[in-house]
Amino acid sequence: MLLGISWATPASAASDNGNCETALCRLVTSGRQASLAWPDFSDYTERIRKFYEPSSYAFAWTRDGAATEQAKAMIAAFRRADAKGLRSEDYDAPRWDGRLYGLSDGTLADFDLALTVSAMRYVSDLHFGRANPGLFHKPTDSDEAIADLPTFLRQRLAEGSDVKAALEGLEPPFPGYRRTQQALEKYLALANLGVLPVLPGTAKPVEPGAPYPAAAQLAAILLRFGDLPANTTLSNGSAVYDSPLVDAVKQFQLRHGLEPDGRLGKTTLAQLNIPISRRILQLQLSMERWRWVPHSFPRPPVVVNIPEFRLRTLNSAYQTDLEMNVVVGSAYGGHKTPVFSADMKYVVFRPYWDVPFSIARAEIAPKIEKDRAYLAKNRYELVSAAGGVVGQTDATVAQLRSGILRVRQVPGPENALGLIKFLFPNEHNVYLHSTPATELFAKTRRDFSHGCIRVEDPEGLAAWVLQAEKPEWTPERIHDAMNGNDTFQVTLSSPIPVLIVYSTAVVLASGEVHFLDDIYQEDARLEKIIATRSPSGR
């Protein structure tokens, strides 16, 4: 089954085997075809019936006993599925040569149905992805391109004049998706060049200028990935770790979210030894997640990529307008930032921080008990359910622990939310905000928060958010509001989509490919989900 993709057609509408007068109709109604790598297609039975009934079950993919040009184009697409981040085996790619070679009157029905089933599976996977959780681009949404899958299949593919263009129209329209596909094709080609050497471990980090017996093997790896320019000549008999290898390692470190210090330490060596097959998988999973994103937005969105620790605002062409570092939820202690989407509706200047009850009970209450002046020192207030400030006593601290009272931090430069926050109401109570702890943005790994997202350039983000519809909000006015005395909220008349996503492979506009740590183990989970959809295990 296609993980929630129903196409809004009830399976109960299936007709009786006895109503069929042709072999093709009987095959369709059975819901199973033994010649397919994935024989059970019962989840598609009614849609396939709707595909064939208008033509009274005439063959759609052959004419006069031969495959049509459209059929050949579809088969070519199945064979290229790996380059789209899919699995060609899922669409019977290894079996089509035999089917074409053995095409005869006795196999036409089997051939036609196999192609229809494979095409429906391919169209669905190409457009929505193989494991779409429905967080962004819901498979049950009315989708103009393929809301009626049987009609799309007949008009645009089986009878279409340009199958390739029709299929390309199903893919995400974003430059980042296309760059990821190009990178995947490059890495698939790199994998065909042979196995790379494995670098030996070292007792301590190798410093620039130090002897390194595996320098030639290191050069081979860096050359393969493009971090070391082609035709580079190594000095010192390839036994010393010096320039240009050091410069190439720094570039490699930058692309893999590491501190670009040029030292060959444990973490850098581990990244250098990750096989190309793993990088290919990261790119495939990135393309899968691109398919979960809506193909259009009412306004250009804000996108935060969790493992990259990076925020980007996009323009109407889905190119980056503004980007900055962010701090996301810690991978430990139950503080992970969730993957979701919501609409930004409010900007709050000089916010209070209403401390979540879990933090108040587990972190703040114990500190109050150790230091009775803790609240005052950190500009916290105890607040009643009605919103009134209450004094600190043993009784009110106990009420804080029980949840009767809450604690908030008053606005100001030391407030944990900084001087501005960006609200997109959601069930997770996650939002974007500034922070007084700006030193964290200089770290390479930035998962330090309780789940909310701290932004490095809050004034720049505020300008981008506000100036499109409120040009009176100049950078100067934003700065003054953040550093003034009043707490107030600006409501956006046109909400801005915010996507919190998770991708460990990112391809920049320059074509440079960055691979990131799977800090929340989301790649590992997605890999397992997709693995269950093998032809033998669906």
Chain-averaged pLDDT: 91
The neighbouring-strand order within the major sheet is 5-6-7-16-14-13-8-17
Radius of gyration: 28 Å
For the largest beta-sheet, the strand count, sense and barrel status come to:
8 strands, mixed, barrel
Query: What best-fitting shape do the alpha-carbon axes yield?
Result: globular
End-to-end separation: 7 Å
SSE class: alpha+beta
Give the DSSP E fraction (strand runs of 2 or more residues): 15-25%
Count the beta strands: 19
Unreliable segments of 5+ consecutive residues = 1-18
What is the secondary structure topology, with strand pairs?
Layout: H1 23-30, H2 45-52, E1 62-63, E2 66-67, H3 69-79, H4 96-101, H5 108-128, H6 149-158, H7 163-168, H8 175-191, E3 210-211, H9 215-225, E4 240-241, H10 245-255, H11 266-272, H12 276-290, E5 302-305, E6 310-314, E7 320-329, E8 340-349, E9 353-354, H13 357-370, H14 374-377, E10 380-383, E11 389-390, H15 394-402, E12 406-409, E13 420-423, E14 432-433, E15 447-449, E16 453-455, H16 458-467, H17 475-482, E17 488-501, E18 505-507, E19 513-515, H18 522-531
Parallel strand pairs: 5-17, 7-15, 14-16
Antiparallel strand pairs: 1-2, 3-4, 5-6, 6-7, 7-16, 8-13, 8-17, 9-12, 10-11, 10-12, 13-14, 18-19
Helix pairs in contact: 1-2, 1-5, 2-6, 3-5, 8-12, 9-10, 13-15, 16-17
Description of the structure:
Helix content is 35%, strand content 15%. It contains 18 helices and 19 strands. Strand 6 and strand 7 form a beta hairpin. Helix 1 (23-30) packs antiparallel against helix 2 (45-52) and helix 1 packs across helix 5. The longest helix is centred in the first third of the chain and has 21 residues, at 108-128. The protein is globular and about 90 Å long.
